Amino acid sequence: MPDDLHYDCDGYCEGHERKVQLPLQSLEYCIVCFKTSQDLKLCSFCGEASSSKTSAYCSKECQTRDWAEHKKICGKDKTDRISLDVFHPFLCVLAEYNRLQGPLHPALQHKIINNPRPDSRATTFSDGSRAKLILLGEHVGETPERWWPTAETPGISVKLKRRFVRDGNLLPIVTSIVVALLSEMYTTPYTDRHSLPRTRLNYKSSPIADFGIVKGKAVVHCEDTFAFRNTITGQFWFGQDPQDHYWIYFKTLKGESLFFRCRVIHIQCVRVSRVRSLYSSKRTDAWNCTLGAVCLLGPSNEARLTQDA
């Protein structure tokens, strides 16, 4: 990395590629006395020690002794700590923005010629799989009155349309969110030779040590999954497979695990049960991004409405 690296006013590196600054992974020893302890702590403001990325402080005395070095990187104008407690609705915005960049779902452009009511049964297919079948007819563009003429109420029609809008493209969307977080928050270096404050994610009082994508299964009823058949072209396909589900995980330095799930309205998965930690017995939270709200699952098993998305 060249010494003259700097960022312009928009945060982009001039003439050089960005370099990812890996977050603190563990606390191994005191940076001053090199003592190992289970009770090591970071600076309460910036969430970092000095130059080492695996060290902290064992006492206030050691932190005071290190202040002359640490103050070079500490301060409100140098580190912007963004808490997932207040930031997770913005992840919903990112997911929705990426959805808008994709193509319109085929089922929204063709007339629905059967009547897939909310209480209608699933269809069993030749391979033994089951899903609610949607029969598509002529191309109608985005004309709402011609799209599903047999819908019992406008409300039912709107709900089905919203589910189709969010069907598919789950992995590309969560991947784009993770890459955006990495490129925008973890490419500002641990030096004071740039004009912008560095940004780091944290949760409660603990920095985020790792984040990425989890692959798993969403537990849903077969009546809440879709299969589509174009009666004109004969094309047949299944909607988003709940057995091939993806969400984002965050792990704090303290060992807490957090999960963010988006685009689950299309499979009617608008509530989640308590998620067990993948790493430890520490507290686990999960944010479930549904159609109109974010559900925060805390220490209790009860999901509560926290904020409109």
UniProtKB/TrEMBL annotation:
GO molecular function terms attached to this record: zinc ion binding
Protein name in UniProt: MYND-type domain-containing protein
Swiss-Prot/TrEMBL keywords: Metal-binding, Zinc, Zinc-finger
InterPro entries recorded: Znf_MYND
Alphabetized Gene3D superfamilies for the sequence: 6.10.140.2220
PROSITE patterns given in the database record: ZF_MYND_2
Coiled-coil parts of chain: none
Isomerase as UniProt keyword: no
Residues of the MYND-type domain: 30-74
